[in-house]
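[Amino acid chain]
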Amino acid sequence: MTRRPGWVFSLSLIFLLAFVVLGVGWPTHLASGANHALNFTTAHFGWLYLFTTTGFLVFCVGLATSNYGQIRLGADGENPEFSFATWLGMIFSAGMGVGLVFWGIAEPMSHYVDPPLGEAAPESPQAASLAMSYSLFHWGFHQWANFAIVGLAIAYVRFRQQRPGLISEAFRSTMGDRVDGSAGHAINVLAVLSTVFGVATTLGLGVIQINSGLVSVGDMGFGTGQQLAILGGIAIVFLLCALAPLESGVRYISDANMMLAAALLLFVFFAGPTDFITAAMTNAIGDYFGNVVGMSLVMTPYTGDDWVERWTIFYWAWGLSWAPFVGSFIARISRGRTIREFVVGVIGMPVLLSTLWFSTFGGSALYFEMFEGASLGEAVQTEMSSALFATLEYLPGAGIISILMLILITLFVITSANSATFVLGMFTSKGVLTPTRLSRVTWGVVQVLVAGVLLMSGGLEALQTISIVAAFPFMILMIFMAAALLKSLRSEYRLKELHQAILMERIQRFVEEHDHVAGTPPAPPHEPPPAILGEPEPEYRDESGSEEPAPGGSPPT
C-alpha cells in the first residue's frame, strides 16, 4: 500500500475541475441542468429515498441488538483510540455542526409559517407542534443511520480485517477481486464525488449563515460577492489546519466546538423561555415517537404537494451525500469500539444533542414569535439564514452572543472541511490513514472551488439541488454495501462458532486424557445400570457360565 495517487485521484479531479469550469463559464446552464435532474429524480425515485433511509435505520438497530453487536472494530480486547467524550465531540462536529446552527431556528419557523403537508393552519398552535416534531424527525435517527452504515462498513474492513479503508473494500465479500479493478475504481470515484458535493453544500450553508451574522453584528452587505470573500477567508484557515495531524488538528478544534456549543446552548436554555422550551421538547419527543413510522414513509400522490421533496427528501439526500465522508471519518476515529457501542454512539447520542438544540433554539424562536410578536416568520421568508441572529436579539447580551455564535459557525465549517480533506485523501491514496499534505491541500482547494460555483449558481437552492442529485447513485451503492457487511459478519460469526466448537472438543479430550493418566479408569463401554431401591442385586456369571453370588449378597436360589 502506497501513498502515491492513482486512477481514483486523477479521474475524480478531472471530473470536478470540469464541473468547476462549467459552473464558472456557464452558471445558468449548470443550474438548468441540475434542476432537470432534480425533477426527474424526485418524480421517479422519491419513494426510494424514504424506504432506503428507513431500512438503514432498521438494519443498524438490528445489528446492535443481535449477537453481531459484540464484534469489536479492531482486534479482540483492543482499547478505543479516543475517549468517549472526545469521540462524540468529533462525530458531532464533523456530522451535523453547521447544519444544526443553520436550521436550528430556520426549519421550525419555516414549518410554523408553512405547515407540513397542509396539516394545520399557518401560524397556529398546531403548526408550532408540527414544526417541532418534524424538525426532530429530520435531524433524528434516520439521518445518522446513513452515516452509521458507511462508518460500520469501513471500520470493519479497516480495523477488523486489516484491509485498506476504501469504500470499494466493503464490497469484497460480494464482488471478490473485482474491487481491485475498474469496478472498484468506479465505486471509489463515486464516493469522492458524493463527498465533495455533500461537503460543498455544508460549506455553502455555513458561509451564508456567517454572511447573515455579519449583517446583524456589522455593516457587511448580503450577497454572492460577500459570501465568496468569506469562503476564501475560511479556506485559508482550514487549509492551514489540514496540514496538521488529525490528533492535533481536528481533535482540538472539535473539542473547542463542543465546549462553545454547550455554553451557548445552556445560556439560551436558561436565559430564554425555559419552561416553554422543556414543555415543547416533551411534546415534540412524544409526537416524534408516536408518528415516526407515518412520517418516515409519507408521500403526496393525491395532492401533488412538493413539501416532501423540498424537506424530507432533501435532508435524506443531503445525509446520503455526506455518508461517505462522515461515515469514513467516524470509522477513522472508532477503532476499538464494538458494533453495539458504535451504533449507540453514532445514532443515539447525537440525536439527543440535536433534540436539545432544536428544542432550545427553535422553541425560543416559536415563543418569541407567538407571545412577543417577534416577526421571525417574516425574517425567515425574506432570508432563511437571518432567523438565528434575529432570535438572538431577544436574549440578554445579544451582541456578545451573536459574536460567539459566529465563532461557533466558523469553527464548525473549519472542522467539517478539515475532516473532509483527510477522508478524500484516504479515498484517493489507496486507503492510507494519514494522507500526504499535498493530497489534503488539493482536496481542500477543490472543495472550496465547488462550493464557490454552487454559491454563484443559485445559492441555497443550488446547494439543495446538487445534494439530492449527487446522492442518488451512492444511495444505490449503500444498499449493496449493507448487504456485503451483513455477509461478512455472518461469515465471521459462523467461523467463530466453529472455532469454539473445536476448542470445546479439544478441552473435553484433554480432560478425559488427564483423568485417565491420573488413575481414574474410563467408564466401561457397557456399564450395567445401578440397582433400584427395593430390587434384588443383579447376578453375575463367570466365563464358564456358573452362577456366583453377588459381592456382599446371598447365594442364588
